[in-house]
């Protein structure tokens, strides 16, 4: 089929295959208004018309070779939501080596990094009015776990229907056969999509037993799509939450990242905590929820944290701003900033509550958790440092910021300063409007002081007025610990007094040296 024929085919509505396969659920598919379904179909047709030429042409390539090909998963779901997927996912009856041979001839580039799992990728540059397209094609398959293994076992299947039954949720178990453009929906995914419901195609216990990571995906899709988890599926997650521990930390982290980078992570975080998943993958979040004070002597740590995450997201900037969103480091820091509170909570005599040094304890807990989730060293260091510094602003009280205090604040934050600005502002969740205004004004004042001082001197990377070589020449000493102590002394003077002239810096160094000789 050529591009012209594919475009003509795309103008025709997708045909619904009469597959009539029933998902094994105790809960019936919820009733959905026919108008809602019609609206979904109209949106899908618009999107599929845009992607169909390249997809249908590729489908013809596979059909000519005697293989089935279908557009599956996210691209089909997104089409009904009115979104065009940048990358296209397909399922095929062809085995990986056969797919590789076909894509090598069809595309301008191809890769087989996922061949072990049956996935081959390719890219084809724009041709005429058909835009560039990136595809991943996976042999019909079923992912299953050995009870003692952290990696899924891959078995290849022979039918599209069988492949769809092994997908995570019904909204991702829809397909478009190619090149015929026949819509396949054996598990009423379109109705669940219209109802905003996450439901497994087969019995949830069987689905989660095959791949426990699907429980994390339920939380992720709750965040990304704003959908609810249907009761039977939620109950299965609650009963099987501990099975998530057999999944590799890297795969869990990838789902957590996608959840946190969603426009509104809160529904996904709620699924993690409500079902018990958080107790296994992010126990610090679970501990926050358990830190409840029935006497209301302090704010709810868990609810406060969710609010801080939302407010931090609101403070992210556009692509040209200092903190382009979505920013994973800022969001992780907002999520973990108070994780030290459960361990440091103390009920004081007289009815007060304290969380002394919870920022320091929280920084250590954050580093430990992110390391367990296999985050890279830079992310671990940045998030932990933000957690450690998130109370620094409050340590200066309501007084006027001195030059020395501003220098120390900027130096301690370093390249994280813009994120720290946003985390500190997001951490204000008080309902007391006067207090909120006072805190906001105080931080406005700090930022103004930073800008004012930056105009007079270099504060982004403060260094002593003499470097190590100059220190050794002036004091006539060899490299060693003394040079380091002298450097540290001059840095402290730079923090307190600001820049000095070379003569003043020399005099200060010699005065320090004289004191060392006594």
UniProtKB/TrEMBL annotation:
GO molecular function, one term: nucleotidyltransferase activity
UniProt-listed CDD domains: HDc, NT_ClassII-CCAase
Record-annotated membrane-spanning stretches: none
Cofactor(s) listed: Mg(2+)
Coiled coil spans: 436-463
Top-level taxonomic group: Bacteria
Gene3D superfamilies: Beta Polymerase, domain 2, cca-adding enzyme, domain 2
UniProt domain HD/PDEase: residue ranges: 297-469
GO biological process, alphabetically ordered: RNA repair; tRNA processing
Xref: SUPFAM superfamilies: Nucleotidyltransferase, Poly A polymerase C-terminal region-like
This protein's UniProt keywords: ATP-binding, Coiled coil, Magnesium, Metal-binding, Nucleotide-binding, Nucleotidyltransferase, RNA repair, RNA-binding, Transferase, tRNA processing
InterPro entries reported for this sequence: HD/PDEase_dom (IPR003607), HD_domain (IPR006674), HDIG_dom (IPR006675), NT_sf (IPR043519), PolA_pol_head_dom (IPR002646), PolyA_RNA-bd (IPR032828), tRNA_adenylyltransferase (IPR014065), tRNA_CCA-adding_enzyme (IPR050124)
Classification via SMART domains: HDc (SM00471)
NCBIfam families referenced in this protein's UniProt entry, alphabetically: HDIG, tRNA_CCA_actino
Stated name of the protein: Poly(A) polymerase
Species for this entry: Flavimobilis marinus
């Amino acid at each position: 089929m050529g591009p012209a024929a594919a475009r003509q085919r795309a103008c025709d509505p997708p045909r619904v295959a009469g597959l009539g396969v029933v998902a094994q659920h105790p809960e019936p598919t919820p009733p959905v208004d026919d108008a809602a379904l019609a609206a979904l179909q109209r949106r899908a047709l618009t999107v599929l018309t845009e992607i169909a030429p390249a997809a249908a042409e590729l489908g013809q390539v596979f059909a000519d070779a005697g293989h089935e090909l279908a557009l599956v998963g996210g691209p089909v779901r997104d089409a009904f939501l009115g979104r065009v997927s940048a990358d296209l996912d397909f399922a095929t009856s062809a085995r990986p080596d056969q797919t590789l041979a076909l894509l090598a001839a069809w595309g301008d580039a191809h890769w087989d990094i996922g061949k072990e799992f049956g996935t081959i990728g390719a890219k084809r540059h724009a041709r005429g009015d058909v835009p560039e397209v990136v595809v991943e094609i996976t042999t019909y398959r079923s992912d299953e776990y050995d009870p003692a293994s952290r990696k899924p076992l891959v078995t290849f299947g022979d039918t599209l229907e069988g492949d769809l039954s092994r997908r995570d949720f019904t909204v991702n178990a829809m397909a478009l056969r190619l090149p015929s453009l026949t819509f396949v929906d054996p598990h009423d995914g379109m109705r669940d999509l219209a109802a905003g419901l996450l439901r497994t195609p087969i019995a949830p216990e069987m689905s989660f037993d095959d791949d426990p990571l699907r429980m994390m995906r339920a939380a992720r899709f709750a965040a990304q799509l704003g959908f609810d988890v249907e009761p039977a599926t939620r109950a299965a997650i609650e009963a099987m939450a501990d099975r998530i521990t057999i999944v590799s930390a890297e795969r869990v982290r990838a789902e957590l990242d996608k959840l946190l980078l969603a426009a509104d992570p809160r529904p996904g975080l709620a699924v993690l905590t409500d079902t018990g998943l958080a107790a296994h993958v992010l126990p610090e979040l679970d501990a926050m929820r358990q830190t409840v004070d029935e006497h209301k002597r302090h704010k709810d740590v868990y609810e406060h944290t969710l609010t801080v995450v939302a407010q931090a997201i609101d403070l992210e900037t556009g692509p040209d701003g200092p903190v382009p969103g979505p920013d994973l480091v800022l969001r992780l820091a907002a999520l973990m900033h108070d994780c030290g509170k459960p361990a440091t909570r103390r009920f004081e005599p007289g009815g007060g509550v304290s969380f002394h040094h919870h920022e320091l304890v929280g920084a250590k807990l954050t580093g430990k958790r992110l390391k367990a989730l296999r985050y890279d060293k830079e992310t671990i260091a940045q998030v932990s440092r933000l957690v450690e510094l998130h109370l620094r602003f409050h340590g200066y009280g309501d007084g006027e910021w001195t030059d020395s205090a501003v220098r120390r604040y900027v130096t301690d934050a370093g390249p994280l300063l813009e994120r720290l600005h946003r985390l500190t502002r997001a951490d204000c969740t008080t309902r007391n409007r006067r207090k909120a205004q006072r805190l906001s004004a105080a931080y406005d004042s700090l930022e103004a002081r930073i800008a004012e001082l930056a105009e007079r001197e270099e504060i982004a990377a403060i260094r002593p007025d003499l470097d190590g070589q100059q220190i050794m020449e002036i004091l006539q000493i060899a490299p060693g610990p003394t040079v380091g102590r002298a450097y540290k002394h001059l840095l402290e003077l730079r923090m307190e007094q600001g820049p000095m002239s070379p003569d003043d810096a020399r005099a200060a160094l010699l005065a320090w040296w004289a004191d060392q000789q006594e």
